[in-house]
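Project outcomes to date are best conveyed with an example. Our students and postdoctoral researchers have been running inverse folding experiments weekly, and each run begins with a structure described purely in tokens. The record below, which covers 247 residues, was selected by the lab manager from last quarter's runs and is presented without edits.
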């Protein structure tokens, strides 16, 4: 038999590259990692951004000088308000002190057709060393007995310099009210008999405050005096009193 000759490995030629196969036609799904996916904004957003970038800013219709003037005026208004607040706070006056000097009555004893009149003289001490007080018109005064108003009247207007002591008079007319038994008894008594009564005098007065040569402001002052008189008839005299004022 003939021997099979084995091929020589050294004489073998290089292997041919594999054939590339084309995929069959059709639809395919390709997947990518999520971190490599980028979102692209819609075209209308890009158009809007481009118009906004290239848009020319509108000029303000307010004149720059007018802006400065308004800013200066506003600053001055704030400064004036602060100064006035400090002045009003630091210049609050001390309330004056009141004292009843005299008390007398007229048209006594009262009757149905004759109302009594109460004449009261007070002294007011302006204890402020730098402030004058102007007691303006329009103030009121009332006289009460145990909460019942029995007379009223007006307060006078006058100016009182700082540190001054001034006396003024009140004329209060009796009101058309039924007087309590104690008041009627006191009108009929004399200074030697037991006819003392305790009354309350109340004043409400608008007061202007003057500091230096400038009127600062007007305030409402309220004065209350509890007084006891020995009689409402002839020879009446104040036996005790206590006055308080607030401004």
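After processing, the design step wrote out the following sequence:
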């Amino acid at each position: 038999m003939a021997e099979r000759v084995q091929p020589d490995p050294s004489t073998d030629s290089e292997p041919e590259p594999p054939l590339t196969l084309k995929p069959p036609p059709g639809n395919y799904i390709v997947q990518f990692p999520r971190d490599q996916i980028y979102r692209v904004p819609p075209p209308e957003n890009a158009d809007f951004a481009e118009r906004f970038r290239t848009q020319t800013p509108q000029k303000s219709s307010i004149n720059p000088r007018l802006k400065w003037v308004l800013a200066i005026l506003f600053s001055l208004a704030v400064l004036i308000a602060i100064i006035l607040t400090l002045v009003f706070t630091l210049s609050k006056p001390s309330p004056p002190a009141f004292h009843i000097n005299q008390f007398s009555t007229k048209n006594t004893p009262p009757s149905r057709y004759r109302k009594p009149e109460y004449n009261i003289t007070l002294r007011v001490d302006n204890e402020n060393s730098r402030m004058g007080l102007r007691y303006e018109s329009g103030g009121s005064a009332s006289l009460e007995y145990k909460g019942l108003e029995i007379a009223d009247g007006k307060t006078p207007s006058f100016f009182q310099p700082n540190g001054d002591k001034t006396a003024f008079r009140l004329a209060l007319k009796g009101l058309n009210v039924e007087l309590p038994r104690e008041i009627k008894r006191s009108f009929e008594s004399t200074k030697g008999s037991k006819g003392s009564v305790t009354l309350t005098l109340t004043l409400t007065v608008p007061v202007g405050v003057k500091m230096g040569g400038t009127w600062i402001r007007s305030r409402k002052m309220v004065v209350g005096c509890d007084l006891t008189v020995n009689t409402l008839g002839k020879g009446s005299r104040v036996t005790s009193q206590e006055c308080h004022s607030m401004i």
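The chain has three helices and ten strands. Residues 64-90 form the longest helix (27 residues). The training component of this project remains on track.
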